[in-house]
Amino acid sequence: MTNSLREIEDMEVLFIIGSNTKETHPVIANRMIKAYRKGAKIVVADPRRIPMVKFAELFVNMRPGTDIPLLNGLAHVIVKEGLQNDQFIAEKTEGYEEWKKSLSEFTPEYVEKITGVPKETIIGAARLYGGSRRAGIFYTMGITQHACGTDNVRAIANLATLTGNIGRECTGVNPLRGQNNVQGASDAACLPNVYPGYQRVDLPEVREKFEKAWGVPLSPAAGLTATEMMNAAADGKIKAMYIMGENPVLTDPNMHHTVHALENIDFLVVQDIFMTETAKLADVVLPAACAAEKDGTFSNTERRVQRVRKAVDGPGSSRDDLSIILDLANRLGCAMQFSTPAGAFEEFGRVWPALAGIDYQRIAQRGLQWPCPTKDHPGTPYLYKDGFPKGKVKFASVPYTPAAELPSAEYPFVLTTGRNLFQYHSGTMTRRVVPIEEHAGNPYIEINPADAGRLGIGDNEFVNVRSRRGNVEVRARVTSKIPEGIVFMPMHYHEAAANVLTNDALDPVVKIPEYKVAAVAIEPIAA
User: Fold this and answer.
1) By Cβ atoms counted within 10 A, which residue in 220, 243, 341, 416 is the most buried?
2) What is the DSSP letter of 395?
3) % pLDDT > 70, the chain
4) ω into residue 371 within 30 of 0, thus cis?
5) Per CATH, is 182-369 categorized as 3.40.50.740?
6) Taking the domains of the chain in order of start, what are their residue ranges?
7) pTM across the whole model
8) Can you give the C-alpha Rg of the chain in angstroms?
């Protein structure tokens, strides 16, 4: 997030797109509701009538995979009606006039045809967001999990830049991270093309810095993303894999392909707190400690670095992740320069200035937000107050790219996937909690009443859902929350795994799969 969670309550306009915030980020949603009760206007853009719609001034009920035309359409209206921030554009951006030309075709009428959103709603949403200078955009994987996910994010950045809703309090572009330490893992270089602090591996000066810090030669070549690794394993180009705290058999798209890839390699190690579907395929399982059984830090979605303290000992032979990694590193001949979580964090601060001012003593009671470059720095509630790291922001033209897979006569429905309030990710933890399972332990597919009636499907009846990659049998949940022609499945349930069906087409830049749009057929199953 460019801004802070506390700022949400004082925003004038909240534009939520591709985020089922009430169910997937309920604590943040409560802040949004507080803003609503203070008079803020909320715009929700989503294919489903999600719970946050209850608090929305406008519900932008769009077709899956049409984010780019919608966002470009909003920008078109803002420019046409003179709602842009001319001073911000003149002082802090470049490429505006050329980018503005790319918006010409995205009229409300044209965007309505693609997205299914009435032109009046498009104009209304543009006026709300464009008319405010205290507006924030919030998004999650409904934006990123597309074959055009990178362009979706660029279109969002254009919108914030156009209105100057960035670099100030109660504004910003705010991606809500999906798990408790996704931000921290990214900061620490759990990415294939950067060192800690997003410092690129292909820049000689950066590589030399880390070679000096670590005392070893380093490669200038970027590695593979997780999805690319699965493809390489399936092709026999990767012979061994070490998976920590992930369950790709359930969470990667096209499950059959993932299982084939993992079975195709010579050696698989899985380090996890439970015997997951992925761990069952492993040659070696390293039992790990959970968050309550180890020390360290988590960095949350607002860039706040917080202490995590061991509360109980882990069961059996489980060990914390760091001790396992240090032991393996020593046996492989790579002795680390630290032996404790505090030591690892101190090294982090030495190689990334944004963390240099944070230590375990400073965050003993309350976390700090990076950048925090010195020991007397208070942390940074919002980014870009004093300008942008690379000077002026460049507007990026974003053409409309349809989804990689569209409905057809054989596969007439669009499947979109996501989460629900009670389960978490692949269910590895939550599905072991009896009260949760009693309430939300059954997989389902949401289908519109008109579609269900046409197919002869009753509520709670089993259906066969089929895509080009496989099929699952699951109970139908007939509901008007989902429009005609679209169906929704949560991704938590191994017995009816949505990712058997999803498309493994990748975004060409960051290689994120297109989980949110897949063409499927639905057939009733005889009793």
Assistant:
1) 416
2) P
3) 100
4) yes
5) yes
6) 5-176, 182-369, 413-524
7) 0.93
8) 24
Residues ≥6 apart with Cβ < 8 Å to 234: 257, 260, 261, 264
Q: What does the alpha-carbon distance between residue 498 and residue 476 come to, in Å, rounded to a whole number?
A: 13
pLDDT band (50, 70, 90) for residue 334: confident
Mean pLDDT value of segment 278-303: 96
For 170, other C-beta atoms within 10 Å of its C-beta total 23
Q: What is the CATH number of domain 5-176?
A: 3.40.228.10
**CA 264/CA 10 separation, integer angstroms:** 53
Long-range contacts of 199-206 (CB under 8 A, 24+ apart): 199/351, 199/352
Longest dimension (CA), the chain: 69
- Answer yes or no: is pLDDT of 24 > 70: yes
DSSP class of residue 313 equals: P
- CATH code reported for the domain at 413-524: 2.40.40.20
User: By C-alpha distance, which of 8, 313, 247 is closest to 135?
Assistant: 8
Concatenating the DSSP letter of every residue in 112-131 gives HHHH---HHHHHHHHHHHHT
